[in-house]
Amino acid sequence: MPLTYASIGQMNKVIKVKGQEKVKKFLESLGFVEGSDVVIVSQLSGNVIVNIKQTRVAISKEMANKIIVKEG
Q: Alpha-carbon distance 43 to 56, whole Å?
């Protein structure tokens, strides 16, 4: 499921990052790599603030839709 559908406070694992190569590289630089744990801290109008690799990051709804996660 896309990251935008994940519940707030729930631990998720990054399965895949979709999009153009430039977008993938940007998200990887923020820590969104396959196998990383990610938790949504808050969500407003689809935009999300997440904890990933002990860092808090804000990303747009469009970027969050490119990140595929699973529970756990």
A: 13
In three-state form (DSSP H/G/I as H, E/B as E, the rest C), the secondary structure along the chain is CEHHHCCECCEEEEEEECCCHHHHHHHHHHCCCCCCEEEEEEEECCEEEEEECCEEEEECHHHHHCEEEEEC
Find out whether 15 and 6 touch, Cβ atoms under 8 Å. no
pTM of the model: 0.90
d(CA 9, CA 24) in angstroms, rounded, equals: 24
pLDDT digits (tens, 9 = 90+) for 26-53: 999 999 999 999 999 999 988 999 999 9
Structure tokens at 9: 């406070």
